[in-house]
Design brief:
Blueprint (H helix, E strand, L loop, with lengths): L25 H5 L13 E6 L2 E10 L1 H10 L4 E2 L5 H13 L6 E9 L2 E6 L2 E5 L2 H7 L14 E7 L3 E3 L2 E2 L5 E7 L15 E3 L2 E10 L1 H11 L4 E2 L5 H13 L6 E9 L2 E4 L4 E2 L23 E5 L7 E5 L5 E8 L7 E6 L2 E10 L1 H9 L2 H4 L2 E2 L6 H11 L7 E9 L4 E4 L21 H4 L4 E7 L3 E7 L5 E8 H19 L9 E2 L1
Parallel strand pairs: 20-28, 23-27
Antiparallel strand pairs: 1-2, 2-10, 3-10, 4-5, 4-7, 5-6, 7-8, 7-9, 11-12, 12-19, 13-19, 14-15, 14-17, 15-16, 17-18, 20-21, 21-27, 22-27, 23-24, 23-25, 25-26
Helix pairs in contact: 2-5
Keywords: Signal
InterPro entries: C-type_lectin-like, C-type_lectin-like/link_sf, C-type_lectin/snaclec_domain, CTDL_fold
Protein name: C-type lectin domain-containing protein
Length: 500
Amino acid sequence: MDSSTNTFLLLILVFPFDGIQCTETDEDILKTPFIEPDEISDIEDLFTRGSSEYIFVNLLIDYHAAKVLCNGTYGGRLAVIETTELAEFLAEALSETNLFLDHLWVGGKGINRTWYWYEGGTIISPIDKQLIDLYFVNHTKSVKATDRNCLAMGRKNHDVPYFPELKCDVQRPFMCEREAGSWGNNGTTHPGWIRIGNRLYKIFQERVSWVDATARCIMFDRNSRLAVLTNYRESQVLGRFLLIGRPSLENAWIGAKHYQNHYAFSQENIVLSNSSNPQGYPPWRNGTVRKTKGCILLDRHLSNITYFIEARCERLRPYICYKKDLSENDSFVDMLIEEFGYRIFLNKLPWNGAKSKCDKYKVKYEGKLVEIRERKVVSHLIYIMGENKTTFQHMWLGGIYDSKSEKWFWDSDRSLVDLNQLDWLVNTTYFENVEKYNTCLNMDRENHIKAIHYGTVCEYAQHFVCSFSREKLIQLKTDEINIARQDVHGEKTTFNYFSI
């Protein structure tokens, strides 16, 4: 990957099968001993089966964005898997891909606990009962199963398919299905990213609708979205780049859209006032909103001042993507589950680094590297690892092994770890010279919903979670958001939590 432009090398994979003719049957395909890729990609893999192509795309987006991207960018649909034979083929393909994929969005949705295959907004067929009985995931009763109306597909035990039911707004990779086709990159007006403060921007000259622009930003860079502009200076600086780009552009889509009574940048929960403040933000053309529907263009063609212009979302215009520069910052998600609060860090650190990060919240907010002192916390962490907006396979716990006493302790207060609360992995190949270094407590998962706990080397970099009481995390986030908003706007705001 070229770090200066943050573009990805996209290679299409074609997987040949010996002896397959155009009249092949499902049975013929299943006789293939294994699937062997010709080339390697770092973001997507493509598998062929008969006249269909199945594209595994390693971008973390919600179900509805995946549906848009499959149609608008890949010329197809979210994969429809109508037979157990196809499910088993795709599970085998997942076992052979070079991408690290847990599970991916497919084209299934549930209505009143009845599941259907969809193309766009149209029902194709009910999902086969045999497929449901064999491969749907039975969720633990300790985690609520409400609002799990969108379907994903993964594999367990190497190449056995399974279908987890998920909330539609969680972020996952996705699987598209199409007939033979191809795609290309869109042209930009400037090499590299345009830096304004701690945000990076890129202007694309292709003319698309606002909805298609949201999908194209994600496709270009998994961390980017339609542009967010938080003050007058940012809008004027970026407007000048519209003018001096090659080609020069008059206007382009940014990420603001009308919701209920206001325009808002939903990506950062920024609600725009209907009138410009004394500093000129938001930069409405006449100092006030005139049209209470649609999406926002950043526009410079009317004068030397750059304005926010209301427009129909269906209009075809260039667009501007952005991403935050997280090179020196943490990336995390906050979640409230029952009486607990969890801060889920998406960057990886060794155990001591994770502990130090959580200890920063200890005095005022009683934060600590997450500990399992009651069984329901295991269910919470399984949900965090595999079913919410994030997904990962391993995470640090706040347990440490004391070789002198030969016991495990929770680091926060040196109390003994109750091993009966954990799903301890039995090691049948113990070697003292190896195991003596496995002194930091780790949580893993298998088959999507089964927890495994064991000690591992503390120097490994892994995801981690800081835990709080529900009230303390709300207090922490409120303090952080108000400080940030006062720095930018001189006013307070509210914050939306993921809560189950």
